[in-house]
């Protein structure tokens, strides 16, 4: 929108990403069961190493396989002398996990074809049709979760969303969303079903949010208990936090006002768009950047603080070489945070007096991910830089419209202080610690602010006109 308004031309094609075009699997999607399985499998020790890598990178967030039953079949497979075991659902599951493991272990990928893609493609060729997956529902759902997550990592978002939808419906059909009782069922089976259900739930919420589509099942219809991890408090807390975060996403996407006015799109995106459009409408006028008030200002302030918090956490992960170079969540966090901090000063000059050092931190995170071969990171950084270049071409209001003299001196001192400390190995620790632990708004406050937003001020997005917008409405 900003590029078109300033230049009169659409954005360059290279800065526009389309679903499923980033990576090349080297496969046309055709499945031929008669094709011989000529893929070279790793040795048993290396295969165990790859599977353990998957557990390390994904085990705290998702349940992708049942360790006991999977490893039992794993050892049977390597001990077998025939090929019958290489045609079942377990073998498909095994190949997808190897595909994950290869890219996790390498931590660097060259070219558009990800490491381990051969394993994934072979798994897809042997994958049974959804019609026949009901015979092994729990195992089938685990395989579908693996498939959906892998596709999501490669930016095949529509395909990933479709696959996790299949997993969700299988889980619903098996009653996994209910409070399964141990009576009459094996305790281990119940715990496995709970693990499977909450993994499906988390993935479905995340993918639905990114796609901007309605949720398939309401939280009110879910009565399943969380699984228990004996002797692993960290894993229990990690799952609980992920479920709570997904629940917040559900509450936001299910708000009545959001459904009525925005068609299930994210509310803060539309508010930002409306305010940015108003800023662009006054490009030729010599006036201050319009400021926001009330609930809209509170929501935008939350976006900024959340973005700073995200970048501070990612900076710490980068320092410890713990950024995820394949899973997309660190990438999305850096990109969204950078986008918010780019747009914020143009929406309201009082929201963010300086973008330093936050944008540098976002770019540094994307550079690190790009150096590890994450093509999405390079593309996302290009998008941010393109947007920054466009914004730099916008006419700036007078100096008095930004900050007073005292604020300007303070900003300059802060910048000099941070530059002087850049040679210190502990550079920025106190600054980052403050950003990580500073929390002004709770999740409930976020929901309350969203519920009280005046949505009448964005009717122009559905009517095609903004002539009736008043500043106090936005």
From TrEMBL:
Its main location: nucleus. One of its GO terms (molecular function) is sequence-specific DNA binding. GO terms for biological process: DNA-templated transcription; positive regulation of transcription by RNA polymerase II. It is found in: Nucleus. The keyword DNA-binding applies. CDD domains: fungal_TF_MHR (cd12148). Pfam families: Fungal_trans. Residues 160-233 form the Xylanolytic transcriptional activator regulatory domain. The keyword Membrane does not apply. Keywords: DNA-binding, Nucleus, Transcription, Transcription regulation. This is Xylanolytic transcriptional activator regulatory domain-containing protein.
């Amino acid at each position: 929108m900003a590029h078109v308004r300033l230049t009169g031309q659409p954005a360059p094609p290279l800065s526009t990403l389309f679903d499923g075009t980033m990576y090349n699997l080297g496969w046309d999607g055709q499945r031929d069961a008669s094709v011989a399985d000529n893929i070279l499998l790793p040795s048993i020790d290396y295969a165990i190493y790859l599977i353990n890598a998957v557990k390390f990178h994904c085990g705290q967030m998702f349940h992708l396989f049942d360790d006991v039953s999977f490893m039992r079949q794993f050892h049977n497979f390597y001990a077998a002398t025939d090929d019958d075991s290489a045609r079942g659902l377990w073998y498909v599951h095994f190949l997808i996990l190897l595909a994950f493991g290869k890219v996790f272990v390498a931590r660097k990928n060259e070219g558009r074809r990800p490491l381990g893609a051969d394993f994934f493609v072979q798994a897809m060729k042997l994958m049974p049709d959804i019609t026949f997956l009901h015979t092994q529902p729990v195992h089938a759902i685990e395989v579908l979760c693996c498939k959906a997550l892998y596709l999501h990592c490669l930016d095949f978002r529509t395909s990933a969303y479709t696959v996790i939808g299949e997993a969700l419906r299988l889980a619903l059909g098996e009653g996994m969303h209910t409070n399964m009782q141990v009576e009459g069922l094996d305790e281990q089976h119940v715990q496995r079903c709970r693990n499977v259900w909450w993994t499906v739930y988390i993935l479905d919420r995340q993918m639905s949010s990114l796609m901007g589509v309605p949720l398939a099942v309401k939280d009110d219809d879910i009565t399943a208990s969380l699984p228990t991890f004996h002797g692993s408090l960290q894993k229990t807390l990690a799952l609980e936090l992920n479920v709570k975060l997904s629940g917040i996403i559900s509450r936001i996407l299910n708000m009545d006002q959001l459904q009525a006015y925005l068609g299930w799109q994210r509310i803060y995106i539309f508010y930002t768009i409306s305010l940015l459009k108003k800023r662009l409408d006054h490009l030729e006028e010599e006036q201050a950047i319009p400021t926001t008030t009330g609930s809209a200002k509170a929501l935008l302030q939350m976006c900024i603080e959340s973005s700073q918090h995200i970048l501070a956490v990612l900076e710490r992960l980068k320092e410890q070489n713990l950024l995820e170079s394949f899973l997309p969540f660190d990438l999305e966090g850096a990109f969204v945070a950078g986008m918010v901090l780019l747009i914020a000063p143009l929406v309201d000059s009082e929201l963010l007096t300086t973008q330093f050092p936050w944008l540098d931190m976002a770019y540094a995170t994307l550079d690190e991910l790009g150096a590890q071969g994450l093509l999405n990171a390079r593309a996302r950084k290009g998008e941010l830089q393109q947007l920054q270049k466009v914004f730099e071409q916008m006419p700036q209001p007078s100096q008095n419209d930004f900050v007073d003299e005292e604020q300007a001196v303070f900003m300059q001192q802060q910048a000099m202080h941070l530059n002087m400390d850049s040679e210190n190995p502990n550079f920025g620790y106190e600054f980052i610690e403050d950003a990580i632990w500073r929390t002004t708004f709770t999740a409930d406050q976020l929901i309350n602010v969203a519920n009280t937003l005046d949505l009448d001020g964005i009717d122009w997005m559905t009517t095609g006109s903004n002539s009736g917008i008043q500043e106090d409405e936005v």
